[in-house]
Structure formats: C-alpha cells, structure tokens
Structure prediction request, 509 residues.
Amino acid sequence: MAQESSLTIRLHKSDNVVVARADILPGTRIPEESIEALDHIPAGHKLVTAPIAAGEPLRKYNQIIGFAVDDIAPGAHAHVHNAEMRGFERDYAPCSEAKPTAFFNNAEQATFQGIRRANGRVGTRNYLGVLTSVNCSATVAKQIAETVNREDLSDFPNVDGVVALVHGTGCGMAGAGEGYANLQRVLWGFARHPNFGGIVMVGLGCEVNQIDFLLEAYGIERGPRFQTFNIQSAGGTRASVAKGAELLRGMLPAVNDVRREAVPASELTLALQCGGSDAYSGITANPSLGAAADLLVRHGGTAILSETPEIYGAEHLLTRRAASPEVAEKLIERIRWWEKYTERNGGEMNNNPSPGNKAGGLTTILEKSLGAAAKGGTTNLAGVYKYGEAIDTKGFVFMDSPGYDPCSITGQVASGANVVCFTTGRGSVYGCKPAPSLKLATNSAMFHRMEEDMDINCGAVLDEGISIEAMGERIFARILEVASGSRTKSEELGFGGDEFVPWQIGAVM
Prediction:
C-alpha cells in the first residue's frame, strides 16, 4: 500500500492500475510510478501505469477488474469510458487454500453483556415485535406498535421498544416456490430471533401467506411470547389495533424481566454488509471489517457475507477457502442461478455498480466484488445458505441474497445475525431493528461530512497509517460494546423501523 505522502495507492506489484488518493490534474508527475498523468484523475479513480492494449485485462488486487475497450496509455484515466465488463474463466480450485483456524483458548475468550433467552440463544437487544403476514396488515401493525410505544413503555425500562415489521408482499403471489419460501423463512427467522422478547403476528385473513400455513411448515406453537390473529376475525381495524396492543401489554412484564450477563463472543452472529461503496471500500473499511470478522471467528462466533451479485467475479477467492468441496459447489450453484435469474429478467450481472459507485471510482462489478469480498476476512468458508435460512454452522459463512442492502440484511437477520456492520464510502444512511447496525466509513472526508451517521472512520487506514489489523481490532471492540447495549449512531437517529424488506422472487399476480 502507498505511503501517506504518495499520490496513489498500489495494491499489488502486478497491477496495471493504481488508485488516486486525491484529485490528480493533467501533467502531474507521479514519482512513485515514474509516470505523468495525462488526464484528470478524480480521487478514488484509477490511473493506468503500463500500456494496456484493447481487449487486455485491467488488473487491481492482482485480479481482473475489466477489459480495455481501446488502447490505454500510461497516465490515462481508466473508467467506464475505456473499460468494460467481459466474461472470463475463473479457477475455482475448491478447498485449495483452506487452512486450520487459530482459535483463541478459553482464557483468551472475549465476552460481552448479552441477554440469554430460555432456549439458550443470546440477544443483543430486547424488543417486542409486530410481524405481518401480508402488506394488508401493515397499517394495523404500525398502529399497534405506535400505541404501545407511546402509552406503555415508561414503566418497562429493559424493553428497547416495539417495532412493526411490515412489507409489500404476502398476497398476489404463488403459494409455493422460491418467493413464497423466502418470505416464510424470513418471517420465521424474525419470529424466533433472540433480539425479540415477544412477538405478535397480524394477518388480514384471506391472503396467500396464511399464518397457519407458516406455523405448520415450521412447527411453531403459539404461547405467552408468540401470539397471532387476523384482522377479519378480530372485527376490523380499530378492534385489531386494540387487540394487538393488549396482547403486547400482556407480554411486557415478562419481557422486561431480563438482565444482561457475561456471555462468550461465540454467541455473536455478525452480518457483513456494504452499500454506497467507493474505490476506498476495498482498501480501508472492507478489509478492516474482514479483520474483525477473522477475530470473531477465532473467538468461536459467526460472520455472514452476502450479496451474491456483489461477489461475482471474486467467488473463486471464496471457493478456494471452502471447508469442503460440497460447500464450494453450493456457492458455484448460487452464482449460476444468478446468471440465469438476471438473464430471464432482462438484466445482467454488471447492472451493478450503481451510478454512485461509479462516481466513487468503481468501474465494473468485477472491481466492486473484489473489494466487497474483503469483508469476509481470511478464514475458511464453513457453509453456504439460502436467503433467510437458519445458520447452524459457526465460523465464516455465506448467505445468498441480492445486493440491495435492506433486502440482504433482512435475510441475514432472519438467518440469525444479532449485530450488523455496514461499510459505506458514499454515505449510506441505514439502521436495523432488531439488530443494531454499526456504520463504517471508508474515507475521512465523508466521515467528517456525515459524522452524525458514521460510527467508525476507517479512512484513518490511509490518513493516519493505522494498519488493517489495528482497525479490525477497533471494530471488533466496538462490536462487543454495541452487543452489550451501547447504542449505534443509527439507533440514536431512530433508523430501523422501515428497513424490513423480504426478497420477492416471482410474478406479482
């Protein structure tokens, strides 16, 4: 990596592009590369350091990030005007780089102050939830939550609040298939999430996604902490709001009767996420989060990487770390599914990066993916899961999801994540209930501009010379504090009630 005084950042000796640390004007001499800039290179964008002929690959991280459309001379700006996405063969080499994990011993085991539930699972927050089977019950669910939040929580200081989890589906859909299964897994995952002390689930009554079907499919039983009803049976909107509020009030004393206790970090399941990325994401925040994920895994915990379209072109780096050939094959199957899925919907895998990503210097999905995959650290890939599927393996795992952040995190939380870490270079504003979300800034300029929203400035890796390992330790320490009850910036701002977005697949009918 470049010295602090350098104008550019070189990520590997074999790369033919480097990254501008600041705006570079035409004619500027780049001493560390022995070239002169031919174009204006905006901060975060790529400067070519060796001749690249038309059709030849651009290399960054010692990996292919795109192909030259025309001949590109040293000193030129490389971006969407002269580079593009093309298919190329990847060597998946399953398990070839898997290695034993150096776990901490019991004496070194990190702990946090968690909430141990009756079933043994551990929460980091203590919410009451109002789940909806269908969009038609969304307004009632919101009014139930608003009523109890407004009128009843003052006497129950250990309850973090009531959150209504509303969505735009549940009817006008097939009653079987991938989309239906996604929704049911998400609803069940949230219903059993350890950050909820109690749940009321509200349906309309005539929807495709019947509550009783969900209960039967997952063997769920109603009880003091899990109640359900339908608006049509309850007598309409006002009666339903009153009924739901009364059910929650009945749960409040028991939900409030909790205490935090020291539990091992192995009880943490961390969602790894990035959004509003820039070229610094893969240089500062993402590898730093990867270092924190490595620490969590070494303490016996679980870290979930997701966003399948945003590892596209970097998936071979994960299959090589797979713990078994079966795990590698599961990931490859998901990649093939996404290629077919985008094709039949008239899209392509390179629909991402977004306009904001491109403004930040990311040219192709290949480049974005290589940076995004760094969030996964360096330990073995222990498992690959469907969207919202309960994760039953400790260590570093992958959960299939879209790249759309709220949708992806919804699946991760349904899978069991009780803390979220979200890296951003452009400045995504996001929060999540019931799982607290830490925001990690990739560059100092954005951090200082949006400090009210950002929890940690990973731009210090470049600006202050802090090592990736040291920043990872800083992130891990903050994860433990947040898991123990310390509030994140997004929690202070009230985010999290509108970010529940189950992944819809299939026709809306």
Summary: The radius of gyration is 24 Å. The chain has a mean pLDDT of 96. The CA atoms of residues 453 and 489 lie 5 Å apart.
